[in-house]
Design goal:
Layout: H1 9-28, E1 32-37, E2 42-45, H2 47-53, H3 57-60, H4 74-85, E3 90-98, E4 104-115, E5 121-130, H5 132-147, E6 151-156, E7 165-168, H6 170-176, H7 180-185, H8 194-208, E8 214-222, E9 228-237, E10 246-253, H9 255-307, H10 313-344, E11 350-353, H11 354-372, E12 375-379, E13 384-387, H12 389-405, E14 413-420, E15 424-430, H13 463-473, E16 477-482, E17 488-495
Parallel strand pairs: 12-14
Antiparallel strand pairs: 1-2, 1-5, 3-4, 4-5, 6-7, 6-10, 8-9, 9-10, 11-13, 14-15, 15-17, 16-17
Helix pairs in contact: 9-10, 10-13, 11-12, 12-13
Bound molecules: adenosine-5'-diphosphate.
Length: about 500
C-alpha cells in the first residue's frame, strides 16, 4: 500500500461540493448538532442547537460544553467522550441539559466520533433531540392511566412469562382490593369465579395462540375480602413486538348494572308467573262456574215446563228474566274461557294468508251479512303474516261482527284494506256504523267493557278484549280511529 494519491483538481471540486452539501444538511437539521474537540470545547453549532439551548454560535463556540451540563451530570459527559474515543457509538441516550436561561430540558443524544484525514479521532459530533414535550406527553398519559376510572393492567404474553403482571393502575388495585405487590403474585385464573373460568381460559388460550388480538368478557372476580364483583374485562394485545409480548387489560365494575339486570329479570319472572296464575284462575273459575250455571238453566227450564201454569204473569216475567240472565252469564263465562285459553293454548303457527282467513270468517258470518244487507269490500290485497290462522279468523269475525252489530241507519258497508309501513303491516276494518266517542276509544278493548246497554245491543264486552289479546300475542297493536262522515276504522298492526 503506497501513500494516498493527492486528490486531482476535479476530485477537489467534488470534495468541496460534498462538504458544502453536508454543511447545508447540518445547518437545516431539525436536530441540534454540535461538534467538540477532544477537550470538550465546542467547535461548531447549528441553528437548531441555538434554538434548543439558547446560545448563539458566538456565545458558545470556543467554550466548554460543560456549560450545557447540569452539575450532577458532569461525570456523564466524560464517560460519553471516553466511549467515543474508544470507538463506541452513543445512540438515543436520554439525559438532561441546561439552557442559557437556566431551565432544564430533557434530550436524547446520539454521538459519534470525528476523524481527521489520518483517521485519528479529533472530536465528537453530538446530535440532540428535544424530548421535553414527548416526555411530558408520556407523563401525562401515565398519569391519566393511573387515575383512570377503569382498572388497567399490562401483562406479559410472552410464552415463558405469560400472564405475568407488568403494571397496574390505582383503580385496578382498588377494584380488586390487592396491593400492587400482591397483585404481581396473582394469576387471572386465581380470582375468577369457577363458572366463568372456562370461557376465560379459552379466550386467553386463543390470544396466546395468536388466533385473536382482543376479547371482551363479562365475569366475576373475587375481591381480596372474598366477595364477588361483576366486571367487564377487555384484553387487547399491544402492538410493537412481533409476535406481541404484552397485552393490556381493562376492568370495569358492572356490579350495579348486573344487580339492576337481576332485579329486572326477577320482576319479569314474577310478572310472568302472576300472569300465568291469573290466566289459570280465570280458566278454573269460569270452568267451575259453568257447572252450577248449567244446573240453574236446567232447573229454570223445568220450573217453566212443569210449574209454569202455577205462576201468575209477574212470576212468569221474573222467570223469563232469570233465564235470560243465566244465558247471558253463560255467554260471558264462555268468552272469558276463550280469553284465558288464548294465552295457554299452543295454537299452530305458520305463514297465514289473511285473505284466506277472511274468506273463512265470512262463511261463518254469511247469515248475518245477508240479514243486515251488508256489503263487504276488500280494497287491494291482504298480506301474508306469521301466526295462528284460527286466532286471525276469530279476530276478523269479532271486528266484522261488531261492524254489522253497531250499524247505522244505512245498510252496513265494511271495507278491509292493508298498508305496508316500516316494520309492520297495518290492516284496517272500516265501517259506516254508529262510530265511537274518541274519549272512550281505549276503554272498549278492556275485559267486559261496553258502551251500550243489553237492551240497545246484546253482547258480553269481551269481543274487543279477545281481539287485543290475539293481536298482542302476535307482537302487534290494535286501536280504533274515527271515520269522517261517521263510522269507525279498527286497525291492527302486525310485524312483517
Ligand atoms: P260487545 O260487542 O260484546 O259489546 P266488544 O268488546 O266487541 O263487546 O265491544 C265493546 C264496545 O265497543 C261495544 O259495546 C261497543 O260499544 C263498542 N264497539 C265495538 N265495535 C264497534 C263498532 N264497529 N262501532 C261502534 N262501536 C263499537
Amino acid at each position: 500500500m503506497g501513500e494516498p494519491t493527492p486528490p486531482s483538481p476535479a476530485g477537489e471540486e467534488r470534495v468541496e461540493f460534498e462538504r458544502e452539501h453536508l454543511a447545508a444538511i447540518v445547518r437545516s437539521s431539525e436536530d441540534a448538532i454540535l461538534s467538540k474537540d477532544r477537550n470538550a470545547i465546542v467547535t461548531s453549532w447549528n441553528e437548531a442547537a441555538e434554538r434548543l439551548y439558547g446560545y448563539t454560535p458566538d456565545e458558545i463556540v470556543g467554550k466548554s460544553v460543560a456549560l450545557l451540563i447540569p452539575p450532577e451530570r458532569q461525570g456523564e459527559e466524560l464517560e460519553i467522550v471516553r466511549k467515543i474515543l474508544a470507538g463506541e457509538r452513543i445512540d438515543h441516550y436520554e439525559t438532561e441539559r441546561i439552557r442559557k436561561d437556566g431551565t432544564r430540558i430533557a434530550v436524547s443524544l446520539t454521538a459519534s466520533p470525528i476523524h481527521d484525514a489520518r483517521g485519528e479521532v479529533v472530536g465528537v459530533s453530538t446530535q440532540a433531540r428535544d424530548m421535553t414535550t414527548t416526555q411530558a406527553a408520556l407523563r401525562s398519559v401515565e398519569q391519566q392511566l393511573h387515575g383512570a376510572p377503569v382498572g388497567i393492567a399490562v401483562f406479559s404474553v410472552a410464552p415463558d412469562t405469560f400472564g405475568q403482571l407488568l403494571t397496574a393502575n390505582l383503580e385496578m388495585t382498588r377494584l380488586l382490593g390487592y396491593s400492587p405487590a400482591e397483585m404481581a403474585e396473582l394469576s387471572a385464573g386465581a380470582i375468577t369465579h369457577p363458572d366463568d373460568a372456562e370461557p376465560e381460559r379459552i379466550l386467553f388460550e386463543e390470544l396466546a395462540a395468536g388466533r385473536r388480538s382482543s376479547f371482551g368478557l363479562e365475569k366475576r372476580n373475587r375481591h381480596r375480602d372474598g366477595h364477588w364483583i361483576w366486571v367487564w374485562l377487555t384484553v387487547s394485545l399491544l402492538g410493537g413486538g412481533d409476535p406481541p409480548n404484552m397485552a393490556i387489560a381493562h376492568l370495569l365494575d358492572i356490579s350495579e348494572r348486573k344487580a339492576a339486570e337481576d332485579e329486572l329479570e326477577r320482576r319479569r319472572r314474577n310478572l310472568e308467573r302472576s300472569n300465568a296464575e291469573l290466566d289459570q284462575f280465570a280458566y278454573v273459575a269460569s270452568h267451575d262456574l259453568k257447572e252450577p250455571l248449567i244446573l240453574l238453566s236446567a232447573y229454570t227450564r223445568m220450573l217453566a215446563e212443569r210449574h209454569g201454569d202455577d205462576l201468575d204473569e209477574e212470576g212468569l216475567t221474573f222467570l223469563g228474566h232469570v233465564r235470560e240472565e243465566a244465558a247471558r252469564m253463560k255467554s260471558m263465562i264462555d268468552d272469558l274461557l276463550d280469553y284465558s285459553r288464548l294465552q295457554t293454548s299452543a295454537e299452530e303457527a305458520g305463514r297465514v294468508a289473511l285473505g284466506d282467513v277472511l274468506d273463512t270468517a265470512l262463511r261463518t258470518l254469511a247469515p248475518r251479512v245477508e240479514e243486515t244487507g251488508a256489503r263487504i269490500d276488500v280494497d287491494g290485497e291482504l298480506p301474508v303474516v306469521e301466526g295462528s290462522s284460527v286466532q286471525f279468523e276469530r279476530l276478523f269475525r269479532n271486528l266484522i261482527g261488531n261492524a254489522l252489530k253497531f250499524r247505522g241507519e244505512e245498510p252496513p258497508v265494511v271495507t278491509l284494506s292493508a298498508e305496508r309501513a316500516d316494520h309492520e303491516w297495518v290492516v284496517c276494518v272500516r265501517d259506516n256504523g254508529i262510530g265511537i266517542d274518541p274519549a272512550k276509544a281505549e276503554r272498549i278493548f278492556e275485559v267486559f267493557q261496553r258502551l251500550h246497554s243489553q237492551d240497545e245491543y246484546a253482547g258480553t264486552g269481551m269481543g274487543l278484549a279477545i281481539c287485543k289479546r290475539i293481536v298482542e300475542r302476535h307482537r302487534g297493536r290494535i286501536w280504533v280511529d274515527p271515520v269522517s262522515g261517521g263510522g269507525s276504522a279498527f286497525k291492527f298492526a302486525l310485524p312483517h
